[in-house]
Amino acid sequence: MESALSMASEQARQAGAKKICLLRLRVGALSGAVPEALQFAFEALSPGTLMEGAELGIEAVPARFYCRNCSAEFTAELMYSECPTCQQASSEIRAGRELELASMEIE
User: Fold this and answer.
1) Looking at residue 34, what is its pLDDT?
2) 16-31 in b/e burial notation, b at 16+ Cβ within 10 A?
3) Residue 31: CATH number of its domain
4) pTM, whole model, 2 decimals?
5) Is 61 exposed, middle or buried (0-12, 13-18, 19+ CB in 10 A)?
6) Would residue 10 count as lying in a domain?
């Protein structure tokens, strides 16, 4: 979270912002990040910064896999999942590892 706040502050300053009103993060199901922990860290780290009093929005990104055997794309909760179409093991992850700053609203 500290890195995301630093990146957001830098971008906001470059845009001439006085305040960040809303910060949106994209958090993948396989990223290892816990949304509640991110919220807690945001609340602890934002006082005294451009984000003081801002809202944190977290967009959950499900894990999405690709099956090379049958070319199916599917979502699953586990890191290594079986294709629901052909039942072959698939470990090619297309989405779900994200932990990124998606957008922000500034004044």
Assistant:
1) 94
2) ebeebeebbbbbbbbe
3) 3.30.2320.50
4) 0.82
5) buried
6) yes
